[in-house]
Backbone:
């Protein structure tokens, strides 16, 4: 044994164990996220429990647990119906269950508020909306909900008009404020004209508001009568129902359809119920827009700095120190960038912009508060080193002979750079850009300080002039995870949403990371031939 | 045309060179700029206080204004007011020194020509007036900016009558009173050694009838020396009396009719008489000044002898005056006290930090002082009626290097401690901005992360660079790089919401796996010994050992889970955590340093791994080839030849990982309880500097002390990581120089 240890094979094994542990941990992480994220949208059986005390429960079985000491089993059931029971989950002990059944007609409703409803359909009532009546109650309900949804779409269209009107009114209000601030007497004519315009818009707004209220009231007259497992009746307005499922009688293709429908909603719809349900669209949009905006700042500066360091700066102590500084910049904690962004961009530059251009709105800040512009600038600063390092590396990997050949043929340095070096270094620069984007997409700490919010009232890009609203706050996938997972009042119910967001974020980051690595490897292969 | 082309390209070249250089230098400037900008916000913390004399004039010679009973100043410094013996508040414009109106207080009854005997100031601008017939009335003076405009030119003063009056009593020299709704207390001074307390209590019986009763008690029996100074706290519960033998008496008056002398403390060694007393904001600390010029802050703490109540103790000695202290007042907003001595020197001190902020010369004698409500204006009037007004800019008196980094004895604590508590629900709290718990938390999190990550990452890197088969290596490296790209918020979320509850449930199986996994490994090695390296199996295993180990680890986890729960049920009654608490009084918090070690460790593993692997792979192949040719085994080559050569690179990998762990925010924020405590237990939570910034900055008002202290902690983080990273970079460059030319 002693000689065996001396050869070192056991030590190699120990090293292998370390690598194996790292891999196991990574795979566990991926597995946990995949399992919890992918599975949530799959329609699950609604099981009805008859308890020994005579009560009944209907819900999805989420977990089972066994007490090691007593051997007693416990079942966690998602009972839904938060408005009836006050909670979404319930633990029951196995010994209390008399029997289980899977009732075919059990129905699961996704609602606008109060979470899901699990129970049975009794009847559909209401007048004024036409829909086909088939024999099946559930089909009737689906058709009625569809018809009501058509109505609600009209309401939504009117609402959209209201938002646009509101924006216009707000604009006039600010214009008036500005004129009043400058010189109230000189601009009195303009002010009164604006006031008249504003009033007209306001009356229009009120008219539309009333109309939408009336339309909504009409649609809301339709309701379904439902009962939960124990028979408690509950009226639910059809307008509040988002999705109807009868998971116990669904076929596999129907389930797949439902799965994709939920995925579509996730990617394209707005969040509901303080972000714990619905879609992620604003967060996805905010993340992408912030990352693109950031690239606009970090890419040119990073590339120029790298070119300077590699091609123009003379070798010496200064260049070396600059190299160290850049590498260091990559190691500075992100929260430090955040606090810098707050002090310099938000309060410093933003405050000055407010004082210069929007003095009439003070003390309400316009640019002097967190926003997408400041967030992207802060993150640009944070990711510039990534771009610099990647560009430098790719420039360094271009063989000397190419530069010398070009210069020998009479090209200027700039021509060499533009025509030869930059095209050759492009994959490297792309790598840097993608890596920096991946980093920015996952970074949360600085954003929390300079402009991310849990729920933004409007996207930073919309149909109102000037289209890009740089001063607006925005939503972000990473912050969504933190906020929903740690600051929402009902963490247990919010968890699936957090897992899905995590999955999405991980997928984005892993995909872009793989792409960067692929590009880099391809570039390496291309130039290694010239090394001898 | 050719000529033109040359000219054009040359010009382009020059322009490009200029632009590129400018751009490059801009980026470098940005690095320095960041540090400068953060430091610029933090540095004003340490600026000295200053004060500007804004007005000096003599009071108009009017009988009503001679020797005023009380006076004050509004916070804009535009007016002062004096309370004359006629019961009127006289306002004086500070710019001109001329009277600007007056307000009459409600005298107990209109006629009779009564005058005021003495006045007690209570709270921000409340006055209890003792009339010559022994009645007490109270009044509050309000200042409002005119027209509601913030920058209004004028101010409006208003007098609000107090809640109740106390009926007449005979022979009172001085008195103090507190009202709370209908009930209240008055403490009267009858002579040098005689005090009397009167309580008014209102009790409701079952039918809702109110019964008003009055009780009185003499404090005389307990007072054996001449009382020189007296102060009653805001609630009317504690009375402090200082006497001319250098003693302080503390009475408990909270029980109507039953005053109790709690203690008599000697405040100085030479029986120098107490000359002035006052309570600092917070109402617990009493500042005692004596004839020798000493001014010290005392408050009750639980004595080591375990008395049934807390005892007064000298906590904050302030820098002394040169002569006898004549008067002391306290700022209503913070822990600042202003005192003056017989020579007219005014000292402004901060109690908690025990720092002298300012010394002002009033130039007169028998000086009386008043502070504005916000504590920014100071007014001094001497016996000949000379008024001086200063605008004080005290900046951040509660922050010194002492309060940031050393133990401070805060009010209500039993001993000096490192505390971070930036805000509280209580109104008169004092912010406790000690950075030590946060620095400790940062280092604790980093320590646990490093002991988890460094062995795994380094051994894994050694394996990947030296032993693994090439085909697997090109797959493993990108996998680890992608692992590095996992956002920290994801790791933090899984650490806080998945791992923490899991580990809480399976703590014992986890510990068991620490024994079972090595055991299994040992068994595996034992069997591996039988496999001949040259055999087909041996060849297959070589370079792929870790693939064999993965199922082993999974098996180990399964065994420790099932065995662990069984053993836990048998030995620890099914609850290992409870057993830990009962047997060793170790409390297990769900989110603790242990979780952080794993989560944060997971985040730094790929960083250390990648850099270390690069360094190990860059050691020239001919070195290891020579070693292998001489007959060394692959482990011997790796351990004795490759690793020592790559040591600087490996070391720099560890340092960069360390720097990353120190500054990581989201993981620490999500996977710890964020409790700023100093505890070495792995099962307790912590709060790191970075997480603290994320938690506190949204609540910190611009340019407040908290805001600046947070920037200071960012500067600390920046400098710390900058030094570590620079050192690592220098090491790495050296390493590159050594082997770069192969």
Residues:
């Amino acid at each position: 044994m002693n000689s065996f240890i001396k050869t070192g094979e056991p030590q190699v094994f120990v090293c292998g164990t370390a690598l194996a542990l790292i891999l196991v941990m990574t795979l566990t992480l991926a597995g946990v996220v995949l399992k919890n994220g992918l599975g949530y949208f799959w329609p699950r059986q609604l099981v009805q429990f008859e308890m020994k005390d005579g009560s009944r429960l209907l819900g999805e079985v989420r977990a089972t647990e066994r007490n090691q000491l007593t051997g007693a089993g416990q079942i966690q059931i998602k009972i839904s119906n938060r408005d009836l029971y006050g909670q979404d989950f319930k633990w029951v002990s196995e010994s209390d269950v008399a029997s289980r059944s899977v009732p075919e007609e059990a129905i699961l409703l996704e609602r606008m508020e109060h979470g899901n409803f699990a129970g049975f359909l009794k009847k559909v009532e209401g007048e004024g909306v036409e829909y086909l009546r088939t024999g099946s109650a559930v089909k009737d309900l689906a058709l009625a909900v569809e018809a009501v949804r058509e109505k609600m779409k009209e309401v939504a269209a009117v609402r959209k008009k209201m938002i646009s009107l509101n924006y216009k009114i707000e604009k006039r209000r600010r214009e008036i404020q500005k004129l009043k601030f400058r010189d109230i007497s000189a601009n009195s004519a303009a002010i009164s004209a604006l006031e008249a315009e504003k009033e007209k818009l306001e009356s229009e707004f009120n008219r539309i508001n009333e109309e939408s209220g009336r339309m909504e009231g009409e649609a809301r007259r339709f309701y379904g009568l439902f009962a939960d497992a124990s028979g408690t009746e509950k009226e639910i307005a059809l307008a509040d129902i988002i999705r109807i499922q009868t998971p116990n009688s669904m076929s596999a293709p129907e389930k797949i359809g439902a799965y994709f429908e939920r995925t579509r909603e996730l990617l394209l719809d707005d969040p509901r119920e303080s972000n714990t349900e619905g879609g992620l669209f604003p967060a996805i949009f905010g993340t992408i827009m912030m990352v693109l905006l950031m690239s606009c700042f970090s890419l040119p500066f990073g590339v120029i700095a790298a070119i300077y360091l590699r091609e123009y700066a003379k070798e010496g102590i200064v260049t070396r120190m600059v190299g160290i500084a850049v590498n260091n910049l990559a190691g500075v904690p992100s929260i430090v960038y955040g606090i810098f962004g707050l002090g310099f961009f938000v309060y410093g530059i933003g405050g000055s912009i407010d004082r210069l251009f929007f003095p009439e709105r003070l003390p309400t800040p316009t640019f002097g508060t967190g926003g997408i512009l400041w967030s992207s600038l802060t993150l640009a600063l944070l990711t510039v080193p990534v771009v610099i390092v990647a560009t430098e590396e790719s420039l360094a990997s271009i063989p000397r002979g190419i530069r010398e050949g070009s210069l020998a043929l009479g090209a200027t340095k700039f021509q060499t750079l533009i025509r030869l070096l930059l095209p050759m270094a492009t994959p490297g620069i792309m790598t840097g850009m993608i890596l920096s984007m991946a980093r920015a997409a996952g970074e949360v700490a600085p954003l929390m300080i300079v402009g991310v919010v849990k729920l933004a009232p409007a996207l930073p890009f919309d149909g109102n002039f000037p289209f890009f609203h740089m001063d607006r706050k925005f939503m972000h996938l990473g912050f969504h995870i933190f906020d929903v997972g740690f600051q929402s009042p009902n963490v247990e119910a919010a968890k699936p949403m957090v897992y899905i967001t995590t999955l999405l974020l991980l997928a984005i980051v892993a995909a872009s990371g793989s792409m960067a690595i692929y590009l880099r490897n391809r570039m390496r292969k291309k130039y290694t031939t010239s090394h001898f | 045309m050719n000529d033109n082309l040359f000219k054009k390209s040359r010009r382009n070249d020059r322009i490009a060179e200029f632009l590129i250089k400018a751009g490059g230098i801009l980026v470098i400037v940005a690095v320095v700029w960041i540090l400068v900008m953060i430091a610029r916000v933090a540095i004003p913390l340490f600026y000295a206080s200053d004060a500007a004399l804004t007005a000096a004039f003599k009071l108009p010679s009017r009988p009503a204004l001679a020797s005023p009973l009380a006076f004050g100043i509004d916070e804009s410094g535009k007016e002062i007011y004096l309370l004359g013996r006629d019961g009127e508040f006289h306002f004086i414009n500070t710019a001109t020194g001329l009277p600007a109106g007056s307000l009459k207080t409600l005298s107990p009854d209109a006629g009779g020509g009564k005058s005021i005997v003495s006045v007690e100031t209570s709270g921000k601008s409340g006055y209890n007036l003792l009339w010559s017939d022994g009645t007490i009335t109270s009044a509050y003076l309000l200042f409002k900016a005119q027209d509601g405009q913030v920058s209004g030119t004028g101010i409006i003063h208003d007098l609000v009558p107090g809640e109740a009056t106390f009926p007449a009593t005979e022979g009172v020299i001085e008195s103090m009173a507190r009202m709370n709704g209908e009930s209240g207390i008055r403490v009267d001074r009858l002579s040098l050694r005689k005090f009397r307390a009167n309580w008014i209590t209102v009790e409701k019986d079952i039918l809702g009838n109110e019964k008003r009763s009055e009780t009185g008690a003499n404090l005389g029996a307990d007072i054996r020396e001449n009382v020189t100074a007296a102060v009653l706290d805001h609630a009317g519960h504690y009375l402090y009396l200082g006497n001319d033998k250098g003693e302080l008496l503390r009475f408990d008056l909270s029980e109507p009719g039953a005053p109790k002398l709690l203690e008599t403390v000697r405040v100085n060694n030479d029986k120098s008489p107490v000359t002035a007393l006052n309570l600092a904001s917070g109402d617990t600390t009493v500042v005692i000044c004596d004839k020798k010029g000493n001014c010290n802050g005392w408050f009750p703490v639980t004595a080591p002898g375990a008395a049934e109540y807390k005892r007064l103790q000298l906590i904050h000695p302030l820098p002394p005056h040169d002569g006898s202290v004549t008067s002391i007042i306290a700022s209503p907003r913070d822990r600042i006290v202003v005192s003056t001595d017989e020579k007219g020197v005014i000292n402004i001190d901060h109690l908690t930090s025990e720092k002298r902020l300012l010394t002002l010369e009033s130039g007169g004698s028998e000086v009386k002082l008043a502070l504005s409500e916000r504590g920014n204006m100071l007014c001094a009037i001497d016996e000949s009626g000379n008024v001086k007004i200063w605008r004080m800019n005290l900046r951040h008196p509660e922050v010194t290097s002492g309060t940031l980094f050393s133990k401070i004895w805060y009010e209500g604590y039993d001993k000096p401690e490192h505390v971070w508590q930036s805000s509280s629900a209580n109104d008169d709290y004092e912010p406790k901005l000690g950075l030590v718990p946060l620095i400790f938390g940062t280092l604790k999190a980093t320590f646990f992360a490093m002991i988890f990550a460094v062995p795994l990452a380094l051994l894994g890197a050694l394996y990947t660079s030296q032993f693994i088969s090439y085909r697997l290596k090109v797959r493993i490296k990108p996998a680890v790089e992608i692992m590095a790209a996992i956002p920290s918020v994801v790791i933090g979320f899984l650490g806080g919401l998945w791992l923490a509850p899991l580990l809480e449930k399976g703590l014992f199986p986890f510990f068991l796996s620490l024994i079972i996994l090595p055991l299994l490994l040992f068994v595996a090695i034992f069997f591996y010994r039988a496999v001949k390296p040259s055999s087909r199996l041996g060849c297959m295993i070589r370079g792929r050992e870790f693939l064999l180990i993965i199922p082993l680890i999974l098996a180990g986890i399964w065994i420790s889970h099932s065995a662990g729960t069984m053993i836990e049920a048998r030995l620890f009654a099914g609850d290992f955590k409870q057993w830990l608490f009962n047997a060793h009084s170790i409390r297990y918090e769900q989110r603790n340093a242990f979780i952080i070690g794993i989560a944060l460790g997971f985040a730094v593993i790929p960083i250390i791994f990648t850099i270390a692997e690069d360094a190990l792979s860059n050691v020239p192949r001919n070195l290891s080839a020579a070693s292998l040719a001489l007959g060394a085994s692959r482990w011997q080559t790796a351990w004795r030849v490759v690793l020592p050569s790559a040591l600087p690179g490996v070391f720099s990998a560890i340092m960069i990982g360390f720097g990353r762990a120190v500054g990581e925010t989201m993981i620490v924020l999500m996977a710890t309880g964020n409790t700023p405590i100093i505890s070495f237990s792995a099962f307790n939570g912590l709060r790191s500097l970075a997480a603290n910034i994320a938690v506190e900055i949204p609540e910190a008002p611009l340019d407040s002390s908290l805001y600046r202290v947070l920037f200071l902690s960012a500067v600390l983080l920046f400098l710390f990581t900058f030094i570590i990273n620079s050192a690592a970079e220098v090491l790495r460059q050296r390493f590159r120089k050594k082997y770069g030319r192969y």
Observations:
- Chain A is about 60% helix and 10% strand.
- The longest strand of chain A covers residues 56-66.
- Chain A touches chain B through 100 residues (CB under 8 Å).
- The domain at 284-531 of chain A is CATH 1.10.3720.10 (MetI-like fold).
